[in-house]
């Protein structure tokens, strides 16, 4: 894999308002890397992800994500940061009052796309990538949970991101569908995008082994995966 860092964090402290959540965080993620992020509820996983996508300010330490400096990130820089990454949530966060294609078109318009022809071509491209090419006309409530998550992943791919942050993307899915989503995420990773995925599903970690980061006792550790 390339050693070009997509995420580079040194000696960072992660805060929720004035509450210190994680300290002395060192983290490097390169193009094509796939990292799991694990830890008990309240251990700091979500706070770390929110810092990476600019929802929480980095008050102490150094951090660079998608070529933007987190320590000096201005409000006006956040849209640029978000365009350079894709974010996938546990609860899909689709707009329920519009079709799959309209969900994707909304994001493209919001991130500065103008040409209807180019927007349609990009929508067709990402739906094809997630095996949803024939479902663009459907409303979210007409889709299964796994199909909704595929649409959410397609949405995350719209702006050709360097990085995908996935926060419990299989948390609302059954085991078989979770495996399908994992296979899809691995394919995306192999295309050169970095993925950081928070999860509680240790069966997936065993079945699809990748480097694992663990939030525990206010720190982030690299854990060694042992194969039986």
Kindly summarize this structure in a few lines.
The protein has 228 residues and is an alpha/beta fold.
**Helix content range:** 25-40%
Number of helices: 7
Main sheet: strand order: 6-7-8-3-9-10
Q: Do you know the CATH architecture? A: 3-Layer(aba) Sandwich
Distance between the termini: 26 Å
Q: Which secondary-structure class do the elements indicate? A: alpha/beta
Number of domains: 1
Spell out the helices and strands N to C: EEEHEEHEHHHEHEHEE
The overall pLDDT, averaged over residues, is 92
* Sheet with most strands: 6 strands, mixed
The shape is globular
From the alpha-carbon coordinates, what is the Rg to the nearest angstrom? 17 Å
| Count of distinct strands | 10
Estimate the strand proportion: 25-35%
Q: Residue ranges: pLDDT <50 for 5 or more in a row? A: none
Task: Write the CATH homologous superfamily.
Answer: P-loop containing nucleotide triphosphate hydrolases
The fold-level CATH name is Rossmann fold
Question: Can you describe what's shown?
Answer:
Helices cover 32% and strands 28% of the residues. It has helices at residues 45-52, 78-83, 100-110, 116-129, 145-157, 175-190, 202-207, and strands at 5-16, 19-30, 34-38, 60-65, 68-69, 85-89, 163-167, 194-198, 211-216, 219-223. Helix 4 packs across helix 5 (145-157) and helix 5 (145-157) runs parallel beside helix 6. The longest helix is centred in the last third of the chain and has 16 residues, at 175-190. With 228 residues, it is α/β, with parallel strands linked by helices. Strand 1 (5-16) and strand 2 (19-30) form a beta hairpin.
């Amino acid at each position: 894999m390339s050693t070009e860092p997509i995420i580079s964090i040194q000696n960072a402290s992660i805060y929720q308002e004035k509450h210190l959540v994680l300290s002395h965080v060192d983290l490097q993620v390169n193009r094509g890397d796939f990292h799991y992020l694990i830890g008990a509820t309240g251990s700091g996983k979500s706070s770390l992800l929110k810092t990476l996508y600019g929802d929480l300010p980095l008050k102490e330490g150094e951090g660079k994500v998608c070529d933007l400096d987190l320590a000096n990130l201005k409000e006006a820089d956040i849209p640029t940061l978000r365009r350079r990454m894709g974010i996938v949530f546990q609860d899909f966060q689709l707009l329920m009052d519009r079709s799959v294609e309209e969900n994707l078109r909304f994001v493209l318009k919001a991130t500065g796309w103008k040409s209807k022809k180019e927007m349609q071509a990009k929508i067709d491209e990402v739906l094809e990538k997630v095996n949803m090419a024939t479902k663009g006309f459907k409303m979210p409530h007409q889709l299964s949970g796994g199909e909704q998550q595929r649409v959410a992943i397609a949405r995350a791919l719209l702006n050709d991101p360097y990085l995908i942050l996935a926060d419990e993307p299989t948390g609302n899915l059954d085991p078989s569908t979770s495996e399908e989503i994992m296979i899809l995420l691995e394919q995306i990773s192999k295309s050169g995008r970095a993925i950081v995925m928070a999860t509680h599903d240790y069966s997936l970690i065993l079945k699809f082994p990748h480097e694992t980061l663990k939030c525990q006792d206010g720190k982030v550790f690299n854990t060694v995966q042992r194969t039986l």
